């Protein structure tokens, strides 16, 4: 679904009316809470968010895994495979799996390290361990109390902020901010903190500042070009902001619901618009995966990672994790 606009409005009547349902959401979370499963001989890093959609946890996972690449330990990634049809624990194989089976984000993650999907994260961690993994990085999972993390990272996007500060469905929060803070060891704020997230953390978590990174070869391809931009993200504004920052002139933009599956009709319309404006058609890597093959060479994308500005904190934490195995 598209992110509701009232999630980012302080005095929305809709939000006020939905607050009783938010209470039920919280109650359901408490009732679903399970005893933590403790693993032996494997370290667990959980990367998650408190805001539903769009914080940047998946590119953060990629950057963390790349930092661990130089360690002598095998690293695997654990994902739920959101919106994929496969529900049992499965190792992603792009030769036989499509995004429809394992989810769009899992396809991207599997290019970086062995990636497991499935509803049961504990089973996936056990399977990764059987295949030699000594460290697993969970894409999401801060709210999953059944797994104890050795290093839990809470990711925010500075542009997105915390919205109206209310819990789903009245607002974008998956739980109270204070509850997420208690579960985590570090916070990461991507891009300029224009919503004063740091103040709301109230010195309860160390803060790592970060920014989106795009490789120079992609920057040179799109700088000063006219583009028609589209995406299906939880918070599309950050993609359009990135497009502007790399020097693109956006002639037209369109957002679709998060994890949207593009139909041929959508793609034909977008291509016609790009022709009308004499512009390149550009989207995210996650969206490009879901483009019908016959249209992929007409639509551009660029991979993104996260650069940690004050990375000594995260480097020290990761090093401590590896030497204490």
In short:
With 325 residues, the chain is an alpha/beta fold. It has 13 helices and 13 strands.
Radius of gyration: 20 Å
Shape descriptor: globular
Number of helices: 13
**Widest sheet, order of strands:** 3-4-2-5-1-6-7-8-13
- Compute the separation of the termini in Å: 41 Å
Residues in β-strands, percent: 15-25%
Helix content: 25-40%
User: Which stretches are low in confidence, meaning pLDDT under 50 for 5 or more residues running?
Assistant: none
For the record, the CATH class of the largest domain is: Alpha Beta
CATH topology of the largest domain: Rossmann fold
How many independent structural domains? 2
Q: What's the helix-strand series?
A: HEHEEHHEHEEHEHEHEHEHEHHEEH
Annotated CATH homologous superfamily of the largest domain: P-loop containing nucleotide triphosphate hydrolases
Global structural class: alpha/beta
The biggest sheet, with number of strands, parallel, antiparallel or mixed sense and barrel status, is: 9 strands, mixed
How confident overall, as mean pLDDT?
92
The total strand number stands at 13
CATH structural architecture of the largest domain: 3-Layer(aba) Sandwich
